[in-house]
Amino acid sequence: MEAEIRAIEADIELLKKGKLTMQAEDETPQLQALRTENSKLKYQRMHLQRSLAAEEASGQDCMVSVIALLLDVFGQAIRTAFPALTDVPVAVTPSTKENFGDYQCNSAMNIVQLLKSQGQKMAPRQIAQSIVDSMPQNALVEKVEIAGPGFINIYLKKAFIASQLHGLLNKGVRPPRVGACKKVIVDMSSPNIAKEMHVGHLRSTIIGDSIARLYDFVGHNVLKLNHLGDWGTQFGMLITHLQQKFPNYLTESPPISDLQAFYKESKVRFDNEPDFKKLAYEAVVHLQNYEPNYVKAWKLICEVSSREFSKIYERLDIKNLESRGESFYQPLMAGMVKKLEEKIAAAGWYDPKVTRVEHIGFGVVLGEDK
């Protein structure tokens, strides 16, 4: 019996060193289990080495994501320790206190609930220990400690930290790897022509530019889109007021630098003078039909407003802002409305005998005939 035990132990040692070759039918259950476990560990090590190599290969342009590497390490450990569980959330966060290590893995609490749903009962600390025991070899983690009900405190290797600091000092802050470059559109600012920006526009401008800069920093193709309010009924008011107050506007540049005051004047007249209101509505129709004199008046008003907006954007250091106002989409509306009518009719939703659909220049009005 003792000789048999010694023989098995010798075989195990040889197997650990990769020097034992046996036929599958000659292996003991212990050897088979150890061989299987060894294969899993080799696969995990290879996967980790590839992840680290990919990070290092992109090190000239990108910074290593410590969180991403730790998620990979502990994700593998959890899958090894609990192969029957699927889609286990891996929770790794920076430690809140220095004595808790550099990072913490708090997945044990979630795994308790997952096991419980399968009729299994296991203490969080026991789960944490299983995760620790299943951790693959890596160049990242120096040691781990189980604390409290099942938290895993993670201490990084000083050599790894030193290498990251060395890269930071030599190459500066670089973006993380985020995968393929994508087209990103940030809809921001979007003020109304002839009106002052209010706090909502400024908020959208500042937050939108911050988001755009972050996407640009990590390598995406960013379009900052400024959807100006430059079309609609208010331009009928403004154009009519311009024509009446400055009848020579086609040949002499009108002094309308204070557009806010100019807008208020036209609004008062629109609300109180029926004849002016009628002319304003007619001016909208002329503008929608792109009649040259009305288009020129519209452009004059837009240019004055755009110059004022540019001053604000310059103070806020907003650059490369692409302005596409409501007027940009105006030529596309007729074709779009036609397509919608055809598709809705084909689907049986639209019957002209029952539902009235009218298209006007600045939108679609739907009304039910009772």
UniProtKB/TrEMBL annotation:
PROSITE patterns xref list: AA_TRNA_LIGASE_I
Pfam entry (one): tRNA-synt_1d
Any one Gene Ontology BP term: arginyl-tRNA aminoacylation
Residue ranges occupied by any Arginyl tRNA synthetase N-terminal domain in the UniProt entry: 68-156
Reaction it catalyzes: tRNA(Arg) + L-arginine + ATP = L-arginyl-tRNA(Arg) + AMP + diphosphate
Enzyme class: ligase
GO CC terms, sorted: cytoplasm
EC annotation from Swiss-Prot or TrEMBL: 6.1.1.19
Keyword Zinc appears in the UniProt entry: no
Keyword list, A-Z: Aminoacyl-tRNA synthetase, ATP-binding, Ligase, Nucleotide-binding, Protein biosynthesis
A GO term for molecular function: ATP binding
UniProt xrefs under InterPro entries: aa-tRNA-synth_I_CS (IPR001412), Arg-tRNA-ligase (IPR001278), Arg-tRNA-synth_N (IPR005148), Arg-tRNA-synth_N_sf (IPR036695), ArgRS_core (IPR035684), Rossmann-like_a/b/a_fold (IPR014729)
Keyword Ligase among record annotations: yes
PANTHER family the record matches: ARGININE--TRNA LIGASE, CYTOPLASMIC (PTHR11956:SF5), ARGINYL-TRNA SYNTHETASE (PTHR11956)
Stated family: Belongs to the class-I aminoacyl-tRNA synthetase family.
Protein name in the entry: arginine--tRNA ligase
Classification of source organism: Eukaryota, Metazoa, Spiralia, Lophotrochozoa, Annelida
